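Here we describe the complex-level prediction in full. Unlike the single-chain runs in Section 2.1, the three entities below were treated as one system.
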Amino acid sequence: MSFEYLEFGKEEKDFIEKIEEISGQNVYSCYQCGKCSAGCAFSSSMDMTVNQLIHLIQLGQKRRVLEANTHWVCASCLTCTVRCPREIDVAALMEAVREYHLREEPEKIIISEIPKKAYDKLPNIALVSNFRKKTG
Amino acid sequence: MVQYSYFPGCNLKTNAKGFEETAIAVSKKLEAELVEMPKWNCCGTVHTMTSDNMMRRIAPVRVLSRSKKHIDTLEEGTTKEVVTLCSMCNSTLKIVNHEVKQNHEDLEKINYQLEEDEECYEEDMEVKHFLEIIRDNIGYEKLSQSVVKPLEGLKISPYYGCMLLHPDEAAIDDVEMPSVLEYLVESLGAEVIDSPLFKFCCGSYHIVDEEQIVDTQVGKIVEAARLRGANALVVACPLCAFNIDHQQKIMKDKNHGKEPLPVFYFTQLMALALGVPLKTNHFEDHHIDPKPLLKELGLTGKKKS
Amino acid sequence: MSKTKTQTKEENKTPMVKIYIMGSAHEVPASLTIMKAMEYAGFKFTRGAGCRAGFCGACATVYRKAGDYRIYAALACQTQVEDGMVLTQLPFVPAPKGKYDVNKVSPTANTILKLYPEVARCLSCNACSKVCPQEIHVMDYIQYSLQGQISKAAEESFDCVQCGLCAIRCPAEIPQYHVATLVRRLHGRYNMISPETLEARVEEIEAGFYEEGLNELMNLPIDKLRHKYYHERDFIDQKKA
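The structure predicted for the assembly as a whole is:
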């Protein structure tokens, strides 16, 4: 069995505070039941499940949280939010992590790199929502 | 005849024309006319879940304020309801409406931004999805009495998608056990096929840059409905419709997949059953043409079986 | 001599105001427009001035007033100075234009999004409309474009003079005035009925119908041409005649 010692200093606390501020949620409400991940339609596409990501947020592990694709794969369907037994707005936490990223790096997708052909068919509802979620 | 202020949302004017035209046609037949707001802006499609970003709440609040003004001009508009067809608009407007009613400070900030535009929202509107109007104000009984051509032979799997049922503030029905689309389909004389993936997210906006995610979701949704014997899906969201419709076609072209299932908006089914002219459906905008299926079942109005 | 003196007196009577041009204070007559006041203060325009009549949109100016947090924007040739104004010129707005052949695109929202995908980022904050010196409902025409309502967008944006102030204020970084050009071109190309008389006249020109008369004029000596122009010109109403 191996152990990993995690730092828990000012940087970590600041990260947690910011995520709580943006999302308006208390990350320590989560007791890791995993219901969010079990019901998530996208779990199989995520490199870390939703509850795992929340655990890392609780530990203030900013770098690891931001490196995960979990919050980007999340499409805000809110299934987790309506099912959470602790009444946490889980999707708002995912949004907060996205927002944290976008407030530092405003472009998750580079709009000019989207192939022009795609615009021939894409409905504008898809573009509006995508740009709202993935650009700052 | 009651008139409702109707907020279309961008897609109803572009690739979901069939949704809007059939909705307006059936709303007239059911004496609950949808009248489009004169000037409206995009609601933002996805609601911001941040607690501090007021900028993204301006658009939906402006819609609420403008719809109030519109209602005042309606002759037979006796309600304070703004009606949507798109479920993303429905959800965005409902959530913001709920939020600003709870949080007056936020509303003050937003109204302050709207001041120069001579807009002010006074928390006096209710957002309704057309499905709610059908269920609560028109009634299934009246709907089934208006049917001139029962949709016999159509085996419809209702697909709610996320935004009709999530979150609680925006839900138009029971979150885990909705029935509004089921009753609607039954009232029109079609058969309901229940699918466990009735609200399994279609992948939504990932269609822009993560198409494979959408493909996976759509594959599962369609397969679940097909396994249970459905020959078509019914939806209430232009993005669900596009994703399921378009990606089925792409997947079929790529892997010689199974016969795709056509996707209908609920208003298109109503229009077919209520005898609204076929062209209002704009089936030419669909990627999987529903006409062969309708023809086979004798529902196109041209052939009597 | 005395005449000159009275003139100076009158000039002294002209109320003066203090304005700040790019940070430095200048006393200028209160009756002047911003553009004339800047010239009065000694600035010479090499850019940022064009028609001087409110049509070309070259002289976009941004300013604040004393004791007011708002950012105002106007055309320098059309706006009178006010006491305490703090202003600067915006002679150029960097915003690349989409390239297209108007005959090869369709009048739809998809065309607009293909050339200007950032239109989908519009937050409907209305900052663009607030800043527009032409008082156009900029946000509304951007929304019409997004909705694919090309004709409505074209009509709403008709008075645009391309000063570019909207693009400077936009939090979604949309070049609204280029979108306006695009929608008007699409509207003109696909939605408007082209007048029959115009088409007939163009056909005549292309068929060389006026070639002879034109050549005749071109070969006339200047005095004969002048005579033709001033004395022989026919002002008779063709229909009545």
